[in-house]
Automatic annotation (TrEMBL):
Family membership noted in the UniProt record: Belongs to the tRNA nucleotidyltransferase/poly(A) polymerase family.
Protein species of origin: Teichococcus wenyumeiae
Keywords carried by this UniProt record: Magnesium, Metal-binding, Nucleotide-binding, Nucleotidyltransferase, RNA-binding, Transferase, tRNA processing
Domain named tRNA nucleotidyltransferase/poly(A) polymerase RNA and SrmB- binding: residues: 186-241
Cofactor(s) needed by this chain: Mg(2+)
Keyword Nucleotide-binding: yes
Protein name: CCA tRNA nucleotidyltransferase
Length: 400
């Protein structure tokens, strides 16, 4: 469908859109366009990752045409008009144009449409409502390109209406502000967000954590988090958040890792019960354990740690954690640990050289005595600065 009253800019599609699976999908579906984040990031000069395509066809018809073109089709979200096309192991989501029939703040009942503007009008932000065809012709119904260039995160239409359709958009506003926003946020959006905060209770914990994690992955989420606090959003989704000084110190260092759990640990108030937080937000077991360790002040190293004491600390700290513990310790107390981080990076993590089979080979009967004997030798190994090798540890094991 063509809108003669809409001026079309033309842009050069990158190889990620003009070749491979995206190009094959666009060629197989008459009138199909790339939509959403791929268009936004192309215009922003950022790498294009996931490519989503929309088409003015019912999903069954889109699936048929894709299969006829030799493209595999998986019906991953058929109720919402979405299928996943896969060519050469590269997935492309293909969604039929839609209009909302009923929304409840979390889900929507939809009907298929052939009206591109109607489909764009149901999207969240103006710069996410743009679309582009295979030739690089751009459709921009709501001035998204200008908003993107000006660093404005602006809802399509009335902000309160957009959020009442899906309250996750409230959190998405801050995530996109962290990545694309510059200057003061849209005042109409902030006013509507303050009124919409109670609607956050309708979201699943998994969706809240997904958005919070994506926000914490932004290069600098500090400003967006401050806005969330001011608008009452942060206390609603993360009442455990502290005053933010530790996170500010962490974000101020350009060498600090962009790691969401590390940043979350820095954001939490001292003494936070992380197990309860992890249960509420439905963390994976690995996420819950990592946050517990990062938030535990007893595991954090003092800045002067070196030599045998450093090796002992490394031996008792899970792999992948020592550097982050040094970062969170510095963020918490403000004491520089750059030299310590250098020593941590330069020191191999000592690993106790004996296992259960060594105890059995030494004649220790299978059972609790094996663990007790190994624990005794490991304690000696730690006292010796983690330097005795396997042979020395076996001799100590045999001595009993």
């Amino acid at each position: 469908m063509t809108e003669p009253d809409l001026p079309h800019d033309r842009i050069d599609p990158p190889a990620s859109l003009s070749q491979g699976a995206p190009a094959a999908v666009l060629a197989a579906l008459p009138g199909a366009r790339v939509v959403g984040g791929a268009v936004r990031d192309l215009l922003a000069g950022r790498p294009v990752h996931d490519v989503d395509v929309a088409v003015a066809l019912a999903p069954e018809e889109a699936s048929r045409l894709l299969r006829e073109a030799g493209i595999k089709v998986f019906e991953t979200g058929l109720a919402h008009g979405t299928v996943t096309a896969v060519l050469d192991h590269q997935p492309v989501e293909v969604t039929s144009l839609r209009r909302d029939l009923v929304t409840d703040g979390r889900h929507a009942q939809v009907a298929w449409s052939t009206d591109w503007r109607e489909d764009a009008a149901r999207r969240d932000f103006t710069f996410n409502a743009m679309s582009m065809d295979a030739g690089g012709r751009l459709w921009d119904y709501f001035d998204g390109r200008a908003d993107l260039a000006g660093g404005r995160v602006r809802f399509v239409g009335d902000p309160a209406t957009r959020m009442a359709e899906d309250y996750l958009r409230l959190l998405r506003f801050f995530r996109f502000h962290a990545r694309y926003g510059r200057g003061a946020p849209d005042p109409a959006a902030l006013a509507a967000i303050r009124d919409a905060v109670p609607g956050l209770a309708r979201l699943s914990a998994e969706r809240v954590w997904m958005e919070l994690k994506r926000l914490l992955e932004a290069p600098d989420p500090g400003g967006a988090l401050a806005l969330m606090r001011e608008a009452g959003v942060l206390p609603a989704i993360l009442p455990e958040a502290g005053e933010g000084a530790a996170l500010s110190r962490l974000l101020a260092d350009p060498q600090a890792p962009v790691e969401p759990l590390l940043r979350l640990a820095a954001l939490l108030a001292p003494g936070t019960e992380t197990e309860a937080l992890a249960r509420r937000l439905r963390f994976s077991s690995a996420e819950a354990e990592r946050l517990r360790q990062l938030a535990d002040p007893k595991l954090r190293p003092p800045p002067e740690l070196e030599g045998a004491a450093l090796r002992r600390w490394l031996a008792g700290t899970p792999p992948g954690l020592p550097a982050d513990l040094a970062w969170i310790a510095e963020a918490s107390d403000g004491v520089d640990r750059s030299a310590l981080r250098g020593r941590v990076a330069a020191t191999p993590r000592p690993v106790f050289p004996l296992q259960g089979r060594d105890a059995l080979a030494a004649g220790i009967p299978a059972g609790p005595g094996v663990g007790q004997a190994l624990a005794r030798v490991r304690q000696w190994w730690l006292q010796e600065g983690c330097t005795p090798d396997a042979q020395a540890c076996r001799i100590m094991l045999e001595r009993g």
